[in-house]
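Protein modeling request. Please complete all fields; requests missing the sequence field cannot be processed.
Requester role: graduate student
Desired output: 3D structure, token encoding
Chains: 1
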Amino acid sequence: MSHFHPELRRAARLIPRFSFGPRLSRLAKGLQRRRGLSAPPSAEGLAIRDEFIPGPDGSPLRVKLYIPAAAQPALPAILWMHGGGFIIGTPEQDEARHIALCLKVGLVIAAVDYRLSPEHPYPAPLADGYAALAWLHSEAGRLNIAPDRIAVAGNSAGAGLAAGLVLMAHDRAEFRVAFQLLIYPMLDDRTACRTDIDERRLRLWSTESNRFGWRSYLGREPGGPDVPAYASPARREDLRGLPPTWIGVGDCDLFHDESIAYARRLTEAGVPCTLTIVEGAFHVFDLVGAKTEVVRDFHQRYTEALSKALCRG
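Delivered output (313 residues):
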């Protein structure tokens, strides 16, 4: 346990060692379906609601909105992609984070309920995200959003999707992304092929889970020569012209090395990039150790980065 941060060791000791595969993924999705959509929580100063927008496949796509209730000038916004290895998850799993960010920074969050793999492999989840981003820009006036201050963000697989969305938006040049926030991002399918990982340092996302997640998303084995960069952003050769970026990851996270490599390449390409490495932190440590000082500091760092990038005055 000595390689984990002192405030995270108890959680690391209690977290069971497991990996996601077809059976566990189906179980998690089944529980999610049976639970259904819960009523939005009551948060003073916020309006929380679902909107159903046209999805890229013609079916409705749910976007959960978190909007400061007080009348203000046009607000910055974040398009949020949730984590879950491309295979599980909902926007609601990040609700506490969203509420805190909205109230502290004064911004709108639009969290996308994108389709999950392996039932819907690439490019379906990414296409859902892009449709939501386009909708957010088109509805900026109605939602009281400043279209020049819209960021794309996410955690884990959601951060990988966010990075892919930023690449796509840059290439299509239909609208501008002001900032990208990548929290322990899942960026490189080739990590699933590594054989030098010390599993004893990992929690909550193993190399076996990573292989299953990438295989589900890509619809084939990861690591091949023709994986699209929109699916696996670390494969993108030219990173010039991308928006300012903040990347945060723990040094006991499977995505530590790929996060560092992506941050370095962004900087070399002239993209302003802040990299925060948390010593002794494992994957999604900020969700399981929410009351610790190390997590409060992590949240404060990306909250300040968002506020500096998106807020005027």
